[in-house]
Amino acid sequence: MRSTRLFSNKFLLLFSIVSIAASSLTAQTLTKKQQDSAYLLNPGQERIRKIKKSLAKKFVNFVGNDVSLFGNLVLSKQSINDKGVTAPINYLYNTVNSNTFNSGYSGGFRIDGIYKEKHRYALSFAVNRVAAGNNYKNKYSLSPFIDDFTHFKADNNFTTINVAAHYKKLLPINAMNKYKFYAVFGPSFDYKISSISKENLINGAGNRAIINGDLGAEFDNKGYYVLYAHYKLGINMTSSSVPMQLNRFEIGMSIKAKDLF
Amino acid sequence: MKILYTILLAVIIFTMNACNKETATTQTDVMNSMLTNKNWYLDYSITGTSTKSYVGQSTYFVTYLKDGTTKDSDGLTGTYSVELIGNQSQLHVQLKTAGGNPLEVIYNIVSVGDTKLVLSKVVTTGTATQLYFTNK
Predict the structure, then answer these.
(1) Cβ atoms A100, A136 nearer than 8 A
(2) Separation in Å, CA A37 to CA A26, A33, B96
(3) Domains of chain B (ranges plus CATH)?
(4) pLDDT by residue (tens digit) across B66-89?
(5) If both were cysteines, with which of A9, A45, A150, B133 could B40 make a disulfide (CB 3.0 to 4.6 Å apart)?
């Protein structure tokens, strides 16, 4: 009984000390220096404000810009034409040719807006992790020894940064004030940022820049999120001894950044 | 703003240039990596229309080691190098005969891969012999 009372008294004392300390913390006022700095302009914030103002002046016709974050599942396959490779190297065809779509992923942000209050657009920046299936167009043989082989083995796991500019056409489907369906199309550009294997550099085959034509459909659920499916057909931007065609399907979702943070 | 644009442009140019490019040794490096540290078993030798098959017999093999030395099942040892002469890839082998005399043999590399190797012996007269090796 006595020990219980002692514990209770100690608890009350501790609670009182914590309460006093807490009240003293909340009652703490800003120092003179802190008050002064609150009135002064923060150079960083001021710079951002100026940039925003400058951009708003330059892009006066681009309105309603919403920044969204997105993530994709990417299914990829590349067609490879090794006709320009002269190096006497063989890769057994059956071991390198899968002719399937393999899955990768990507993520980034996009800005959706309206140009001159009429044309909807989406500008996006993404980082893609591509894992592509390979379809080699040419087969060679050295009878009686090697049945089918290729002269080239393409890198099929690589990372790119992607910039896209899409035009969005609102489709007259369903109640457009709630759910919106868009057809989207436009160009995009990929640049490989992962290292290229030595095998892919032989005979000037290495090529980092890919230019794509994109086509897709998007579903906007009352502005909460956007579900989309895009098809991208990409080719080497500059001439290569191994022209490649990169086919990609992207299935993903974007959510407005202001809803997330 | 101009500073920002300049920095952005500099970063883009740096990123685009800071990439690996083909060098004079790229092709020979790749061929060396495929050639070395394997036992290459002779499967066929073809001279003109005459084909000899050694498939499954494992009668003769040759090994090219990463340190630039080579040895074969007959006990011959020496050094080797992969060279690109013009557009022709060649394997230059410096051997020592049983009598201790140096001997250089040059092969044109017809095709090299992870498991298949085809060499054509360079001869000054007569018909060249093609040698088909496998390492499995």
Answers:
(1) no
(2) 20, 6, 84
(3) 24-134 (2.40.128.540)
(4) 999 999 888 888 999 999 998 899
(5) B133
pLDDT in tens, A179-209: 899 999 999 999 999 999 988 888 888 889 9
Q: Which of A125, A153, A198, A241 to mutate to test the interface with B (most CBs of B within 10 A)?
A: A198
More confident residue, A239 or A249: A249
From chain A residues 69-128, the ones with a CB under 8 A of any chain B CB are: 86-92
Complex prediction ipTM:
0.83
Averaged pLDDT, A74-91: 92
Domain regions of chain A by residue span: 2-37, 64-260
Q: Residue B125's Cα: distance from chain center in Å?
A: 24
The dihedral over CA atoms of A79, A85, A91, A94, expressed in degrees to the nearest 10, equals 30
* One-letter amino acid for residue A36 of the chain: D
Distance of CA B34 to the CA centre of its chain: 7
DSSP state of A41: P
> Of A255, A247, A210, whose CA–CA distance to A230 is shortest?
A247
CATH classification of A64-260, choosing from 2.60.120.10, 2.40.160.20, 2.40.110.10, 1.10.3720.10? Answer: 2.40.160.20
What local confidence, expressed as pLDDT, does residue A54 receive? Answer: 83
Lookup result for tokens 């498939």: B55
